[in-house]
Design brief:
Helices cover about 25% and strands about 25% of the residues. It has about 500 residues and is of the alpha/beta class. The strands form three sheets. It has a nine-stranded mixed beta sheet with strand order 10-18-11-17-12-16-15-14-13. A six-stranded mixed beta sheet has the order 2-3-1-4-5-6, sandwiched between helices. A three-stranded antiparallel beta sheet has the order 7-9-8. Bound molecules: zinc ion.
Length: about 500
Amino acid sequence: MRIAIGQLWQESNTFNPVPTTRSDFEPLGIYFGDELVSKLADVNELGGFIHSVRSWPEMPQLVGLARFGAWPGGPATPETIAAILHDFVAALEKALPVEGIYLALHGAMVADGMPDVEGELLGRVRTIVGPTVPIVASLDLHANVTQRMVAGAEALVLYHTAPHIDVFETGQRAAKVLRRLVVDKVRPQTAFVKLPLVVPAERANTQDPASVSFGFREFLQRAEADPEVICAGLATVQPWLDIPELGSAVVVTATHRGKATALCRELAEAVWQRRRDYLPELVDLAEAVRLAHEQSDGLIVLGDAADATNSGSTGEGTAILAELVKYAWPRPALTTMVAPYAVAEAAHRGVGARYTARLGGVREQRYSRPLTLEVEVVRLFDARFTLTGHIGRNMPINMGPSVVLRHGNVYLLATTHSGPQFAPAFFQCAGFDPFAASLVVAKSPCGFRAAYQDRARRIMMVRSPGCAPSEFWRHPYARIPRPLWPWDEGLSWSAAPA
Ligand SMILES: [Zn+2]
């Protein structure tokens, strides 16, 4: 028995003007064939899948197709996506025959001229293998699930958690699903409801009993414990996609249609009823920094959703940095920036150099305002570490050559590539203990809570400029379907699964 596996993973953000090209996939590793299987045997969804399949009594042979993973960012260029899809198709044609396929996808990847990359990939794979080879795909909870994705796979297995601490387990669930299709020959029936609804991520913490998302995670996990249910998922799409089919979705696959449809309708109705519970509480930037400075004992974390690299923003924002340097902090105040030009200049001048740096407004000019700041080069480092927590399990991260710049007790960690700039392991890699700091800026809307919720004295979500604003409905969208909540606040709706 041969099972083919592959990964295409990026969350795109159409407000980020910096296009994603093939070189953006290189830091996380482009792999094919056996190298894919060996490099990712313990990593994220593919790791969970590989672990599970190796315990099957049938002992299937795993055939690596292609793995392309890039940190969230702007849409891919047409040439980039054409080459990636070509590589997947070529790898699959070489791998045939196979009896099942697992693809670890994000579900919110967009290319210029191609708003549904995953739907396109699944469609091409289906064309090659025909209607009888089961295809299972896993998706991020922030996927934009489309009709084409549902049609292209026998089952879509979604993360159940945000922060995403179940990436490995999602791969294990995908293996269980594929085994039911390939070995047990179960005939899956999928119900799919698209909700005219996009919700902010800030309060959607599935691990917090006070959050609206907590009960939805419990609902999904209870549903999947039913032997008649193959998989059940809720995708509250990430909002920064100006594309025609934007919207949240519930997708349930079961052994009979009635079960799938009933669960799908029940959850979709519940999400719609609770939609206002997702609206975030934000603190104005200057006020948040002032309040943080007042509480100088313990760690204050400022969640910077708008410039979240996790949400596909550039990570080049300077607004919080500009506010932080107005204060004297008793212990380090740590913030981050994706600024290859700043890294190059600091590396050129060397450790100990003091100079006037010009930061921001280079990669992106709309939200990132240039800031002129007196700095000292404290450290040069290579931002390579292993991410375990939100988004990753044993995930090798490479944010490239990086520097620590100091202004008073404010430390700016500037990197060459984007990455998980919220991660404690990133700050540790730069020589800091983030939990001993006065303040940490986490460029993440919610996922950072997995690491900081229990250890921070206070967490505030700040209203700041960036490509991934919390109050996204106040920003111009041209292509989204209307009516759509919260743009159309008075919209009434009820579920009717397709
Ligand atoms: Zn996500």
